[in-house]
Amino acid sequence: MIRNILTYPDPELKKKSAPVTVINEKTIELVRDMAETMYDAPGVGLAAPQIGVHQRVVVIDVSAKDEPPELIVAINPVIIHADGESYEEEGCLSVPKYAANVRRHARVVVKALNLEGEEITCKADGLLAIAFQHEIDHLDGILFVDHISPLKREIFRRKYRRIREELQERE
Ligand code: NI
Predict the structure, then answer these.
(1) CB atoms within 10 A of CB 169
(2) Which end of the chain is more exposed for a tag (fewer CB within 10 A), N or C?
(3) pLDDT for 75-98, tens place per residue?
(4) Number of domains in the chain
(5) Of 89, 52, 51, 48, the residue nearest 60 (C-alpha)
(6) Which helix (H) or strand (E) holds 53?
(7) Residue list, CB under 5 A from ion ligand 1
């Protein structure tokens, strides 16, 4: 089922998500809905709090449009190693019609559980490394716009007010 994606400044997006303690039918359903919602949007990643579920679950698919989909499901993801620097443009399904460059690590190693409850380790660079950092931030109530400079954030706030008004008018 495609779920409604919460958008900034919804206070639900600021809340910290809790670790998943049991992986059951509900977790499988949550992941299925998250993947469906992400592909429908379309986006390259989605974290559970973006659909109002405060559990540490993320889905990511950074495969190119002409490639077969490659869904990554990460439950309770933790960055266990990070190095290098990147400064790439990011967007977010919860901050529609806005993009900004964000300083991130270029490479990360992420430990997580998959849907079978098995521990997986993911070595990532490029877009996937950025996606992991962006989505894990969501689990801690952090949006990419929280990483930009205070000056840029002020410009964002003003610009975003107009974007929201325009989006609401269209509804
Ligand atoms: Ni996002």
Answers:
(1) 7
(2) C
(3) 999 999 999 999 999 999 999 999
(4) 1
(5) 48
(6) none
(7) 92
21, amino acid identity = T
Token code pair at residue 61? 């698919």
Task: Indicate the length of the chain as a whole number.
Answer: 171
Q: What is the domain-level CATH number for residue 157?
A: 3.90.45.10
Q: Which domain holds residue 108?
A: 11-170
Rounded distance from Cα 109 to ligand 1 centre (Å): 19
Do 61 and 69 form a contact (C-beta atoms < 8 A)?
yes
Note the pLDDT tens digit of each residue in 42-68.
999 999 999 999 999 999 999 988 899
pTM for the whole structure: 0.95
- Show the tokens assigned to 59: 């889905």
Q: Is residue 5 part of a domain?
A: no
